[in-house]
Design a protein that fits this description.
The chain contains eight helices and nine strands. It is an alpha/beta fold. β6, α5 (about 145-165) and β7 (about 170-175) form a beta-alpha-beta unit. α1 (about 15-25) crosses α7.
């Protein structure tokens, strides 16, 4: 069975790797990004590849692209919500405009595309929604509070939404990678705060140096992750959650352990111990 995939942010980073892996597996791909030329430059030409322009923050455009994909292929079997960006920096150095932009892309943009595709899946009572989150959807760290808040929001939304979809045989998989060796930390995908706060000056300087050094040197292999995503997307029972990378698995385990400890502490306080 050949599945039809719709992938957002498919011109670079993890998105282009997922598109390549799906095509290599014999699947059909509707690859979207803000520029069609960027898609074709990255992926070339293929009879099973359809490149469409989409800015996910445009709800009407998302509806039109979903309909065009269905008109082209008949179905959307797998949606990969991949497009996103990272707003980095200490919270007080980030303007409200930057915070809103983070949520417009990562949260509302992802919701726009999902809202556009889901009716087509409901009509067939079949489909899989893959949402690329981050280990920062489970935990936050200094310099990542705003980015993490957008991923926390996505995870809360999809966790509830998938339960609403379950009776209709529509499945969901959330992917939570650690640091991936992509261009996600480049200026095209990542932004730093635009407000100078002297109390954070040294910490901000050190953080920017860390980001610069980590860029393109991250431990996670995006090609391997993309292949795993496609394999799971082609399976009958994909996991609800896929934490990828030793760093992500270690951090997620630590967060779970800390939550258990905090819950036990709360129980003791409640019981007057």
């Amino acid at each position: 069975m050949v599945r039809n995939w719709l992938i957002t942010g498919a011109s670079r980073g993890l998105g282009v790797e997922v598109a390549r892996a799906a095509l290599a597996a014999g699947e059909t791909v509707v690859a979207t990004a803000r520029s069609v030329n960027d898609i074709t430059e990255a992926l070339g030409t293929n009879s099973r590849l359809h490149a469409l322009a989409l800015d996910i923050t445009d709800e009407d455009a998302a509806i039109a692209v979903a309909q065009e994909a269905v008109d082209l292929l008949g179905t959307i079997d797998v949606l990969v919500n991949n497009a996103g960006q990272a707003q980095l920096g200490w919270f007080e150095t980030i303007s409200s405009k930057q915070v809103r932009r983070q949520f417009e892309v990562n949260v509302f943009g992802t919701m726009n595309v999902t809202r556009a595709v889901t009716p087509h899946m409901r009509a067939r009572q079949s489909g899989l929604i893959i949402t690329i989150s981050s280990v920062n959807g489970l935990l936050a760290n200094p310099g990542g509070s705003v980015y993490a808040s957008s991923k926390f929001a996505i995870e809360g939304w999809i966790e509830g939404f998938v339960q609403e979809l379950a009776p209709l045989n529509i499945k969901s998989m959330v992917v939570e990678p650690g640091m991936l060796r992509t261009d996600f930390l480049d200026d095209k995908s990542a932004a730093h705060g635009d407000i100078e706060v002297l109390d954070y000056a040294e910490a901000t300087k050190q953080f920017r140096s860390f980001i610069a050094a980590a860029n393109h040197n991250q431990p996670g292999d995006p090609t391997t992750l993309a292949e795993r995503i496609v394999t799971l997307g082609m399976s009958n029972e994909p996991p609800v959650r896929f934490v990828f990378g030793e760093d992500a698995q270690e951090w997620a385990t630590d967060k779970v352990n800390r939550l258990k400890m905090e819950i036990e502490q709360s129980v003791n306080i409640t019981n007057g111990n």
